[in-house]
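[audit] Reproducing an earlier prediction to check determinism. Same input, same settings, fresh worker. If the tokens differ from the archived copy the diff job will pick it up downstream; this log only records the rerun itself.
[audit] input (265 residues):
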Amino acid sequence: MTAGGRSWGDLRPRLITGLVLAAAGAAVIWAGGAVFGLTAALVVAVMVWELSAMIAPEKGPEAVQLAVLSAAAILLARVLPPVFTLPLLLAPGLVGISLLKRRRFLVPVAVSLVLLGTYGLVWFRDTFGMVWMFWLVGTVVATDIAGYFGGRAIGGPKFWPRVSPKKTWAGIVSGWVAAVLVTLAMRGPGEAGAFIALAVVISFASQMGDVAESAVKRRAGVKDASGLLPGHGGLFDRFDALLGAALFMMAASLVIAVLGLNVGQ
């Protein structure tokens, strides 16, 4: 099945896998606390393993070691005083330089961003609670779905063909519209005004997370991070956008804290 010359053959496995992931994700978000933290540690371990396997496929044992170290960093960062958070999250990337010994600039940057983004999700759930977490995830998921269908159905000019050949401006804008609709649905027209611009920025941040992962995959010469998820590739392929959104939210929160602004939850 095609639309505008674009294949829709992967739609069924994407839909089934997406529904399973959505159900599991909703349960983990609802549980919060230790369940969310442990799940985040498991997910980051898989993503770092996928990333390591892409960068240095011949270093299987080292990839596992780096994955375990990354999971431990997430767990410790959640329970230790804040002064330890940044060193813990940066440590696996620095260790990865000696373990993988390839692409020595890419390893610390990519691994560190994955850990910072994953910790950002844990921080967001712990700080703002379940409802806001559902809003963040809903915004990212709606952006991804709308971008997929909008990009394939409409087509048109590419957003950044050198890095992400399939991403179009139609998909980008479709994602922004979907983010606004999610915000309107969750906040109501009377309260959503102040959050619409934030939703669009989060949507764009999630799209940049996807673009960043595409750049890593192009450098590594692979199509997907792994084959763990039918129709979706690997966990890194599914969480890249959410990591981008989480990184933006952490950065925005830091700016707000530095400026001394009072933003209600």
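[audit] rerun output stored. Observation attached for the diff report: The chain has one domain: 8-259.
[audit] end
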